[in-house]
Write a structure and sequence with these properties.
Elements (H helix, E strand, L loop, with lengths): L9 E5 L4 H12 L3 E6 L2 H13 L3 E6 L5 H15 L4 E4 L15 H28 L5 E6 L14 H19 L4 E8 L8 H4 L4 H5 L14 H8 L10 E4 L9
Parallel strand pairs: 1-2, 1-4, 2-3, 4-5, 5-6, 6-7
The chain binds NADP nicotinamide-adenine-dinucleotide phosphate (NAP).
The site of NADP nicotinamide-adenine-dinucleotide phosphate (NAP) has 29 residues, from helix 1.
Length: 256
Amino acid sequence: MDRLRLDDKHIVITGASSGFGSHFAGVLADAGARVVLGARRTDKIQDRVNGIKTSGGEALGVKLDVRSAESIQEFLDAAENAYGPIDVVINNAGVEAGAKTYMMIDEEDWDFVMETNLKSAWLMAKFYTERVVKNAQPGGNIINISSITDTRTIKGQFPYAVSKGALTRMTEILALEAARYRIRVNALAPGYILTDVSRLLLESEQAPEFMQGIPMRRFGEFSDLDGPILLLASDASSYMTGSVVVVDGGHICASL
Ligand SMILES: NC(=O)c1ccc[n+]([C@@H]2O[C@H](COP(=O)([O-])OP(=O)(O)OC[C@H]3O[C@@H](n4cnc5c(N)ncnc54)[C@H](OP(=O)(O)O)[C@@H]3O)[C@@H](O)[C@H]2O)c1
């Protein structure tokens, strides 16, 4: 379907050195987008950029630490210098603090997770909006990668689940406030898919039992996110804002 195509769209992705971000970069480039990949591990970013270019896509890698406002601005500057005004921002960078409860984390854990997963999304939204206004762009698009832990969690996901609950809420509030700039803001809330963020749980002894709580009786695959990310990044979702697209095999519908 043509409306899912991304020809000439300029899309920036945070946390694109591994996991979802790296995967999204390939999917979006395959659909015609020019993608800018940001993360701290520049060697991994460059490998991914090279792979996308070899497949005929257009991509650029830029060093990014989302905990630094200065680094976010430099990332956006580099993206605009390369490909012009940005059509879509994907706030994907995320970390967890290990299997810890509120009694086990310290202030450093709290700041590490909240600054990476939550504060960065606000800073990015603010700086991006300033640029959309300055460039007199016809509109914009922000996609926040939240998680089903925003509503359904287990013990030991503090403060990760707190950050995702707030990120989903932030998505709704940003959608309300950013509409005047014709910027759409939506969230993608995946269930459990094996990456470095989920490895501790999905490779634990409890994993098979945990999987029984998912109606579809399997964890997700990267490819399960392809349709939803294309929908949110493309004009096919032009009347969607403030939405949370859940991709979890029915996990949040289950009671256990
Ligand atoms: N896997 C799941 O089951 C699952 C489910 C729901 C939601 N999510 C969310 O999906 C997103 C991607 O995570 P993932 O599962 O793909 O794990 P991942 O492979 O560990 O990816 C996390 C990415 O975030 C980047 N990152 C971390 N701190 C950063 C910082 N300060 N500045 C810039 N980039 C930073 C990492 O890159 P560098 O270390 O190179 O900076 C990495 O590329 C996260 O927001 C996560 O919460 C994951």
